[in-house]
Amino acid sequence: MQLLHSLCRVAAPAGHEAPLSRFVLDYVRQHQGTWRHQPQIIADERFQDCILLVFGEPRTAVFAHLDSIGFTVRYGRQLVRIGGPQAEAGYRLVGNDSQGEIDCTLTIDEETGELGYAFHRDIDRGTELTFYCDFRETETTVQSCYLDNRLGVWNALRLCETLEHGIIAFSCWEEHGGGSVAYLAKFIYETYGVRQALISDITWITEGVHAGQGCAISLRDSLIPRRAYVDRIRAIAAASGIPHQLEVEGSGGSDAKELQHAAAPWDWCFVGAPEDHVHSPDELVDKRDIDSMLALYQVLMREL
């Protein structure tokens, strides 16, 4: 869990993924020598802050978004949401601007509902603020801000340890409208002919998806994947004996939305651990679901 803790502490709200991109590249270069197979690393200005790791002769791509939710400083001590963070008065927010480090408190105007901050000075407009990272680990759970999607990134990096054939794609902007998967998918399809994907992301605990019962295979959210592909994944999961759950939602989305709308015949399926207290400083995931997620990805990347 030390890697996950480190990932959660790196501030990388949508649009400013560069710090986490650097962290991931450093991690890959430091640890790839211990992996069973060596990837080609593709990370240059063609792909902005995104990263591609290409192993062997890939058949399937795993997409994990680097960015998180947060807030942007506006004018007059106002804040604007980045993505869809939960907002409660008193949340601790941190960041940096031209005057130094920031450790402030979220405020909410009782009459207008306008978001703001309490701090001893004005913060430079355009500064990004993120939740303070209070990482809590027990024998059975981990709890922190930004498990969505640092846990998806953790899963992808751990998957690299044993992966022989496949592509790991670290994307940007997912929490605030997307945009990077479109050019990543185009490059992957045209260069490698890969057109099937798994979305390494975190979903919600609901009345039908419970903590500790395995990661969730999503049959649909606001979008609907191709049934034939999802059925293949379900069959592989069932044969593996790895605990998992089936999710059916009518809202929400992921990097899959850009694959669904791509000008190429991409198949996709969201497979991820469920969490409680979504988009708050207190996101909570059961370790059994983390284990299930990684184990299922290892099998799926061999079998698909």
From TrEMBL:
Q: Which one GO biological process term can you cite for this protein? A: proteolysis
Entry similarity comment: Belongs to the peptidase M42 family.
Zinc as a keyword of this entry, yes or no, is no
The record, for InterPro entries, names:
Peptidase_M42, Peptidase_M42_aminopept, Peptidase_M42_dom2
Q: Does the keyword Protease apply?
A: yes
Q: What PANTHER family does the annotation carry?
A: AMINOPEPTIDASE, AMINOPEPTIDASE YPDE-RELATED
Query: Keyword annotations for this protein?
Result: Aminopeptidase, Hydrolase, Metal-binding, Protease
The record's GO molecular-function terms, alphabetically, read: aminopeptidase activity; metal ion binding
Q: What is this protein called?
A: Aminopeptidase
Lineage start: Bacteria, Pseudomonadati, Bacteroidota, Cytophagia, Cytophagales
Pfam family name, one = Peptidase_M42
- Reading the lineage from the top rank, the first entry is Bacteria
